[in-house]
Amino acid sequence: MKQLNVGVIGTGWCGGIRALACARSALVDQLHLAETDPDRLAELVEATSPTTATADWHEIIANPAIDAVMVSTTPEHLHHPMARAALRAGKHVLLEKPIALTLDEADELIRLADDGGLKFTIGYSQRFNAKQAMVKRSINEGVLGRVTSILVSRHITRSLGAKISQRTKLSPAAMEATHDLDFAFWCLEPRRPVRVYSQNAWGVREATLGVPDTQYVLVTMDDGVVVTIGAGMSLPPGYPNQSTTWIEVLGTEGAVIADASHRDIVVNTVARGVQFPLSTMPGEFVDHVYAGPMERETTHFLEAVAHDRPVMVDPQLARVTMEVYLAADLSAETNEVVSLPLTRDQAGLALAEPYANRG
Length: 359
Ligand SMILES: NC(=O)c1ccc[n+]([C@@H]2O[C@H](COP(=O)([O-])OP(=O)(O)OC[C@H]3O[C@@H](n4cnc5c(N)ncnc54)[C@H](O)[C@@H]3O)[C@@H](O)[C@H]2O)c1
Prior knowledge:
Rossmann fold, 2 domains, globular, six-stranded parallel sheet, 359 residues
């Protein structure tokens, strides 16, 4: 069996899951870790017994024995230079979203992967969520008739929202709705988005972080299908602990409604009160099993590399998604509907310091 040598750069929350998934996979021979936080690196060394562990990610790039690299670092401006270096070194790459900070950077990564004949994919983990796979299958099978609209409402807790917004000013559209835009566009292929309107809802996070609580994004596809995504980051502590999602797909012959609100397991203790475990978006290991999408997503990437199969998340579609969330940020800033494709000027405006007009 073909086995791979894999490097994981950034072994925080997601990178830790990726590293553990690799360590447990029969497809992986050597595992190499790069992590700048010594305590976190020590934890992962203990958990995965890697071949090498370093604070310097360049060692992963320079190691000719490594076939594939997973880039899971924060802050997000590290994604592009690390993925670019790995692709230039001839390594297959799984890159956490966002693909890059600018469309030009995204184009460069896609070009490098194409030129090198390398697998390159983006961590849109929710595609590997069983409920979302079920929604996609209902659409593909045609049981809904002609799809007319998709709505996804996703909220995370304010503590997780603060973790994200403290390290980057990327919007809720770029950091959260991105999963659901990707999912909707994937379900609706080959349709393409043509118009975007977005509004920010300002609340508790304005004074503390200078960012909105929730962003609503309305996208019109080229055949008129309407996609509506709500992405919130301000739920109070208590319920749901991590994230809650509601999905509706309506068609001419039916509807599919998915409740991913994570109310199905309640742990109630005197010490900690009511807890709702298994409500993270990437999922988590529960001893010998994995609950959630990220382990399967990681294994899918390993399989694609080992057996030369296509990756499920085509980076070209990730680029489409990126253009839409940039358009959403521009729309929220200007209160105008934004038509696609973005002009170069518009793309530049969308990338300028977000929320500049606020206040
Ligand atoms: N698909 C999902 O469900 C999902 C969920 C959460 C986050 N994400 C994405 O995954 C990425 C990682 O998020 P996270 O929550 O795991 O972040 P995190 O902050 O928990 O982990 C990032 C790690 O990168 C390390 N790091 C920083 N600079 C480094 C460097 N130069 N070299 C090596 N390591 C370095 C940090 O020490 C940290 O441990 C984010 O960009 C985010 O957008 C995806």
